[in-house]
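Question: what's this shape?

___
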Amino acid sequence: MKNMKKLVLASILSLSVSMFAANQESEAAGTHVVQSGESLYKIGVKYGVPVAAIKKANNLTSDMIYPGQSFSIPDSTVSAADKDLMARLVYAEAKGEPYAGKVAVATVILNRVDSPDFPNTVRDVIYQISSSGSYAFTPVKTGSINQAADAESQKAVNEALAFRGQGNGSVYFYNPNTAVSQWIFSRPVTVTIGNHRFAK
C-alpha cells in the first residue's frame, strides 16, 4: 500500500510538471508580436521572463511598445520543473491569500536565489534546512508542498518572474498571528498583504 501511494504521488507530480511545461512551450515561440493593449509587463508574465531580460534582448531603452512590434523572447532562467516547484510552494503557503500575496511569496523565493545570503537555485532555496534542523518553509516539513498547484499559483510564479529584480527586496514572510520566532519580528517590514508580513 505504501509503495502504491508513492507511485500515485509520483504520477501526480510528474503530470503537474508536464502540464506546466506544456503550457510554457505552447506560449514560448522565440518571438512575440505585440497585440493591442499589451505591455512589456504583460508579455513578461505570459512567458515567465523578467521584463529586464526582454528589454536587454531587444535593446530597448524604455517600456514604450506598440502593436505589431516584434520581440525576441529570451529563454527563462528558471526551468519548468522549478516553476512547478515554486507554484506548489506558493499554493501551500498562500492558499486563501490574495493574489498579490501569492506573487509576493514567489518573489521571496526569487529574491533568496538572487541573494548571497541564501542558496542560488530555486530547489535549494525551497528545500533549505538550517544547521539547527529548521526548515526554511513549513510545507516542505509537512509534505503539503507535494500537492499540485492551482492555475492561480502558476500564474503568480510567472508574474513574480516578470517582476524579478524590481521589488523591495523581501526575503522573508510570516503570519504575525502564528509566528513564534522573536527574531522574525525584528526584520524590517516591506509590505503586509493579507495575513502575511513580508520583510528583509
The chain has two domains: 30-75, 80-199. The domain at 80-199 is CATH 1.10.10.2520 (Arc Repressor Mutant, subunit A).
